[in-house]
Input
Amino acid sequence: MTSETLRQRGPARPRLVERWHEAADRNLSPVQRSLLVTWASFGATFGTVRLITHGIRGGWLPWGNISAGGKHLHHYNLGIATLAGLGLIAVRGDRQAVGHPAVATAYGCGTALIADEFALLLDLQDVYWTRQGRVSVDVSLGILSILGTYLSAKPFWHEIIKVTHRHLARTAKQILPAAG
Output
């Protein structure tokens, strides 16, 4: 079915992403939005960092570790710097920044950078690639990320499932009769 055929059938319906935005407006308080963005950025950063570190170690990424003055900088250093910057925003009491998606995103990212190297900070030894440094951290942080993202906005996710299901059902009804 072409887009021209769909346009001829009647007024355009909202796109799925627009419906998701409407569901967020109906179901999320400002605090829940911040928590959702924080947890989602935590999970995305954690996954991205794991991918990058494996790519550097495996040699399939074109760059290497970050160093300064001949010293390897672990990514927890970047996380600490990020959280220190956010602490400065909090201490200033900047009301416009409170609950801002950029602040929530930075907080989730900074926390993930630190949490990914938690075993190193706990043991004060670089156990990142050892079994003790990986298994428990990977499993627990993955679960926490998914759980946090879900629990911080539970009603929103339930509506997202309903909206997506209705959208897909309507789309299928439009496409399937035309295919036969």
Observations:
- Residues 2 and 8 are 10 Å apart (CA to CA).
- The mean pLDDT is 82.
- The radius of gyration is 22 Å.
- The first strand starts at residue 67 and ends at 68.
